[in-house]
């Protein structure tokens, strides 16, 4: 009886999980099929589930905008911001995890609180700083903003992962003559590699999906895929077929990347305190 009840409970949880997954995935599926419709079919009511697929929307998207230019900008900004964020966060998280003082907890909470600040609240000062330092509409300027935006999350995640590393292992390294640099690079980083990898993947995804700063700090030279999508929202009205085709092209690389790296991401997230 208990086994039958447990099996029913498991089936119910599984069914609920599938319903939630379908609910989350449905907008992506709808965007994908709408990209293969004509503009008339895309706005028809009730919507057509059976239609003749066409590549007209994709053809117009490629004729109207340089997709590869936007993709290159997005990759350069995301990889650059993530690399710098990890470089700065590893020593900071190490100091907070293994050399804490009375201000460590307050510093961590303050860093996390900056993520709760609405970006529009600091739009004017950051825009003026970028303009006066000639970083407006540059890859460097947007990469710096994305890096600073995600830095608190990166430090927090690395801090929790480093806290999982047994201190006696680091002490054994010191007894063998390892200095601080060797302790971090030879002992700590290999042990925390799954956590560092998952943190880097998450930062990469956040940078890829960032839209607010992309739309306000870039125009053409450094515009990423978020601006590519927004360019198909014209004053004459929304063209859902072309907008869906552009959105599919913009999210496809990061979806494939997330799908391929999901095992590494889950392994890393279950390594530390984020369980």
Automatic annotation (TrEMBL):
Keywords, sorted A to Z: Cell membrane, Membrane, Transmembrane, Transmembrane helix, Transport
Family matches, as InterPro entries: BP-dep_ABC_trans_perm, MetI-like, MetI-like_sf
Any Gene Ontology CC annotation: plasma membrane
Single biological process term from Gene Ontology: transmembrane transport
Membrane topology annotation: Multi-pass membrane protein
Entry keyword annotation includes Protein transport: no
Transmembrane feature ranges: 12-33, 75-96, 108-130, 142-162, 183-206, 239-260
Localization annotation: Cell membrane
Family designation: Belongs to the binding-protein-dependent transport system permease family.
Alphabetized PANTHER family for the sequence: INNER MEMBRANE ABC TRANSPORTER PERMEASE PROTEIN YCJP, MALTOSE TRANSPORT SYSTEM PERMEASE-RELATED
Protein name: Sugar ABC transporter permease
Species of the source: Neoasaia chiangmaiensis
């Amino acid at each position: 009886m208990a086994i039958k009840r447990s099996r029913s409970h498991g089936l119910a949880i599984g069914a609920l999980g599938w319903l939630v997954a379908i609910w989350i995935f449905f907008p992506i599926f709808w965007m994908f099929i709408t990209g293969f419709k004509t503009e008339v079919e895309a706005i028809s009511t009730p919507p057509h589930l059976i239609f003749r697929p066409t590549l007209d929307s994709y053809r117009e998207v490629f004729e109207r905008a340089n997709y590869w230019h936007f993709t290159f900008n997005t990759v350069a900004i995301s990889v650059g911001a993530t690399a710098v964020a990890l470089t700065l966060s590893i020593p900071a998280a190490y100091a907070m995890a293994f050399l804490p003082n009375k201000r460590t907890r307050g510093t961590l909470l303050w860093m996390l609180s900056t993520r709760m600040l609405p970006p529009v609240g600091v739009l004017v000062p950051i825009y003026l700083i970028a303009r006066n330092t000639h970083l407006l509409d540059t890859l460097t300027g947007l990469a710096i903003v994305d890096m600073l935006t995600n830095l608190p999350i990166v430090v927090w995640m690395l801090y929790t992962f480093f806290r999982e590393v047994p201190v006696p292992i680091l002490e054994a390294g010191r007894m063998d003559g390892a200095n601080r640099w060797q302790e971090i690079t030879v002992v700590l980083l290999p042990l925390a590699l799954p956590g560092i990898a998952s943190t880097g993947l998450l930062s990469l995804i956040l940078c890829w999906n960032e839209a607010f700063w992309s739309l306000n700090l870039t125009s053409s030279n450094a515009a990423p895929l978020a601006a590519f999508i927004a360019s198909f929202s014209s004053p004459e009205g929304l063209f859902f077929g072309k907008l869906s085709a552009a959105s599919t092209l913009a999210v496809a690389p990061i979806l494939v990347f997330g799908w391929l790296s999901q095992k590494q991401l889950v392994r890393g997230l279950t390594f530390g305190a984020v369980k």
